[in-house]
């Protein structure tokens, strides 16, 4: 599995835009859900449920957020992300 992780402090109602060079799953989650994700437990996240090449995700509250880009069995994709006003 090819997975990349980025960290950002932002919120509330700010959007994170993620642009990829290929298809991958993009999830934005807090630290508690990141820990669950890392050990394979059920977790909550913001984002799409399928693979995307571009997505905008609104975070609901101020905090430290983790952007997970998971391309599965495919080669790692390049990632660009930014905060939108």
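^ structure tokens above, recovered residues below v
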């Amino acid at each position: 599995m090819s997975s990349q992780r980025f960290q950002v402090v932002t919120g509330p109602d700010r959007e994170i835009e993620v642009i990829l060079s290929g298809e991958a799953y993009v999830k934005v989650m807090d630290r508690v859900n990141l820990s669950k994700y890392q050990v394979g437990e059920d977790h909550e996240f913001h984002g799409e449920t399928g693979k995307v090449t571009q997505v905008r995700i609104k975070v609901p509250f101020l905090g430290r957020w983790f952007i997970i880009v998971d391309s599965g069995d495919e080669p790692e994709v390049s990632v660009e992300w930014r905060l939108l006003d």
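The chain has one helix and five strands.
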